[in-house]
Q: What sequence folds into this?
């Protein structure tokens, strides 16, 4: 089940051009990895996998906060968020 969720997230990341949808696909992929860690923790009885889930959730929350702030600033200046139009953000 987690592999299917990860595949859907990866497919959506490659297909979608909307930045908000891309963030949602990344979150889906992170949740699939969390599901794998929790199931392996329950199978083997180790606590280390659940600690990794906690850190992944922290990274996901930080990614959402920074990403949404960036996209809100871009939307104010351009009135759309299309990833293919963001060529001027390159170095």
A:
């Amino acid at each position: 089940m987690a592999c299917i969720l990860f595949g859907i997230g990866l497919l959506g990341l490659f297909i979608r051009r909307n930045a908000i949808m891309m963030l949602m696909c990344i979150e889906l992929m992170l949740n699939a990895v969390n599901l794998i860690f929790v199931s392996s923790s329950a199978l083997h009885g180790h606590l280390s996998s659940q600690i990794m889930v906690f850190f992944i959730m922290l990274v996901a929350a930080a990614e959402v906060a920074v990403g949404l702030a960036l996209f809100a600033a871009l939307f104010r200046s351009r009135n759309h968020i299309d990833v293919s139009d963001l060529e001027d953000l390159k170095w």
Q: What stands out?
A: The two ends are 39 Å apart (CA to CA). Residues 27 and 44 are 26 Å apart (CA to CA). Helices lie at 2-15, 19-44, 48-78.
